[in-house]
Amino acid sequence: MREIEVTGKTVEEAINLGIKKLGVNRADVEIEILEQPTKGILGIFGQKPAKVKLTVKSKVVEKAKKFLDEVINSMGVKVSFEVFPREEHILINLYGNDVGVLIGHRGETLDALQFLTNLAANKKEEQPQRIVLDAQGYRERREKTLIRLAEKVAEKVKQKGRPFALEPMTPQERRIIHTALQNHEGVYTYSEGEEPNRKVIIAPKR
């Protein structure tokens, strides 16, 4: 996401200078006024220029919002969303009375919607950005549940010395299990099977 800080005699002058440097239209940027200009003593000494920060709006975000609006309206569900730009990805949090419909069974609908949103938002983009969809903190709660499950099963496998197959999971959920147990002393993990029935096996170390 491109951004620039610019100074000028007035706020408007600083904005225009920044737009020219970025090579974009005014409608393509978000404007934050950092400092108002001051005249100083006698209008000369201690004079300070105006300072603004211009951030180029992400077309990826706009396309993602448009796609989600269309999906939500077509489904007729009462769901809204907020966008939170992060360093490594764009987080879009869904919330509302019908948000459970968009989560689906063990998050399968949410994962599918996330996949489609990434396709729609990054189409023809030279610099694609990863979009993560969450629904009222569902992913964090689900991750904690999976980590507890992984640790509990790992202890049983370690005690009994026999491998244990977990239920089929999405690639993202399998990754959580693998990460949770990657440094475990008594077990190791691997995946087997074909999608959508691919599952994690927790096996004892020999």
TrEMBL record:
Organism whose genome encodes this protein: Carboxydothermus pertinax
Cross-referenced InterPro entries: Jag_KH, Jag_N_dom_sf, KH_dom-like_a/b, KhpB, KhpB_N, R3H_dom, R3H_dom_sf, R3H_KhpB
Entry keyword annotation includes Iron-sulfur: no
Protein name: RNA-binding protein KhpB
Subcellular location(s) of the protein: Cytoplasm
One GO-annotated biological process of the protein: peptidoglycan biosynthetic process
Main location (coarse class): cytoplasm
Keywords: Cell shape, Cell wall biogenesis/degradation, Chaperone, Cytoplasm, DNA-binding, RNA-binding
Pfam families, A to Z: Jag_N, KH_KhpA-B, R3H
Complex formation: Forms a complex with KhpA.
UniProt region (Jag_N domain), positions on chain: 5-55
Recorded domain comment: Has an N-terminal Jag-N domain and 2 RNA-binding domains (KH and R3H).
Domain R3H: 140-206
Family listed: Belongs to the KhpB RNA-binding protein family.
Domain of life (superkingdom): Bacteria
Keyword DNA-binding: yes
Function: A probable RNA chaperone. Forms a complex with KhpA which binds to cellular RNA and controls its expression. Plays a role in peptidoglycan (PG) homeostasis and cell length regulation.
GO molecular function terms attached to this record: DNA binding; RNA binding
GO cellular component: cytoplasm
